[in-house]
Amino acid sequence: MNNTRLAEPPTQQELSIEHIDQQQRCITVTWKDGHRSKFHHIWLRDNCTCSECGDRSGGHRYLELGSIDPDISPAEVSVAADGSLYIRWQGDGHTTRYSPAWLRAHCYSSESIAERRLQPVLWDSNLNDKIPQWDYARITIDESYRLQMFQRIADYGFAIINDVPVEEDQIEELAAVFGFIRQTHYGRIFDLISTPQQRILAQTAHAIRPHNDELFRDPIPGLFMMHCLRASDCGGGASVLVDGFKAAQNLCSSNPDLFDLLCQVPIPHRRFLVDDVDDVALAAKWPVIELNQHGDIVAVHINERTMAPLDVEASLIEPVYRALREMLALLYAPEACVKYRLESGQAAVLDNHRVLHARTAFQGNRHIRQCHVDRDEFFSRLRALHRRLAAET
Questions:
Q1: Residue 10: per-residue pLDDT
Q2: CB distance 207 to 359 below 8 Å
Q3: Per-residue pLDDT tens for 333-386?
Q4: CA-based, 20 to 30 A from 310: which of 161, 250, 303, 344?
Q5: How confident is the model at residue 273 (pLDDT cuts 50, 70, 90)?
Q6: How do residues 63-82 score in pLDDT, each as one tens digit?
Q7: How many CA atoms lie within 13 A of 206 on its CB side?
Q8: What are the extents of the domains in the chain?
């Protein structure tokens, strides 16, 4: 899951097993720092990664769950001189080995699960003086610096990148740092230039309210990128950013019933452009607030401009409208917004499942190029960087 924090490397003391207690259906490991981990027998047998059982991490799994006795138990459990846990199983005598680092990293006690859960940094207009900014040239060559930026995006949901070359195709190079560009009916790259022949509001010079992008798609695009080739001459056209998680948390505190409603009721979105220019009839439904199994907020999806007519039960129409009004009021409030005018050579990277973006009105020429990258690739690269750099140190 993407909503898992990358933990700090455990200390050598944390990796040392102090005591093992064999119970009827599980083994309890007491670590030298006092932490206790309970591992069920079937879990331990299922996660064996020897050459005979195979390893799921690379898709090379040979052992099948159906072949494991649900009442399996160890014949012998021991700790080797290198600290590894060895288990010889009843029946076939198969031996499983676990390194202490692997066991501790996969402890599923409530405490350990809580430590690995995402703890995003919630923000509002007070962040205006502390907006995360990064140097483009350095993120392309310095992996430690890039990891810091990736983690900052995971924590805050966005970043501003400076000194990006002002070239038409540079957004392709920028996107490649984060993942693969997702092509849509707009193409790989979409140019935002105000024009009298606008097809969508983004192609005008009008102000735009905070929103998530492309909610009429399934799946919803992940990271949203904007590269400024030319800022508006008038000084307008500032980007407005809002933390959807913060607004959702505020709604949960002020009116939990409306919060629950927005977690449960899917809102329909549409983009119908069927004519000589486009042949698009996109439709999808998403709850405004998405929770994980722990009740943590993991996504916010809201866009007034693409909402289709509600098609919920009659008894829910007015309550849902009330919930939407409350949520939108929180998102549109001046105290919720960060404003930052992208200048030529700057780029913004946003998590489209959390951060809403908007724009102030402007006059004159303004040229922004934008694209999307899926979140799974971004989080894959975040984890890969973390593992590689941790191994080197």
A1: 57
A2: yes
A3: 999 999 999 999 999 999 999 999 999 988 878 899 999 999 999 999 999 999
A4: 250
A5: confident
A6: 999 999 999 999 999 999 99
A7: 10
A8: 17-116, 125-388
Query: What is d(CA 33, CA 30) in angstroms, rounded to the nearest whole number?
Result: 8
**CATH fit for domain 125-388, picks 3.40.50.2300, 3.40.50.720, 3.60.130.10, 3.30.565.10:** 3.60.130.10
Task: Report which of 169, 218, 248, 191 is spatially closest to residue 374, judged by C-alpha positions.
Answer: 218
Q: Among 95, 87, 41, 86, which residue's Cα sits nearest to residue 68?
A: 41
Select from 280, 288, 329 the least CA-distant residue to 307.
288
Q: Determine the residue type at 291.
A: L
Cα(152)–Cα(89) distance, rounded to whole angstroms? 44
* Predicted local distance difference test score (pLDDT) of residue 1: 40
User: Which DSSP category does 8 fall into?
Assistant: P
Q: φ and ψ at 225, to 5 degrees? A: -125, 135
Higher confidence at residue 63 or residue 9?
63
Would the pTM of this model clear 0.85, i.e. be above it?
yes
**Distances from the Cα of 390 to the Cαs of 10, 47, 362, 387, in angstroms?**
11, 23, 46, 5
b/e 150-173 (16+ beta carbons within 10 angstroms → b):
bebbbebbbbbbeebeeeeebbee
Say how far apart CA 214 and CA 284 lie, in whole Å.
10
Q: Residue 346 and residue 365: Cα distance in Å, rounded?
A: 16
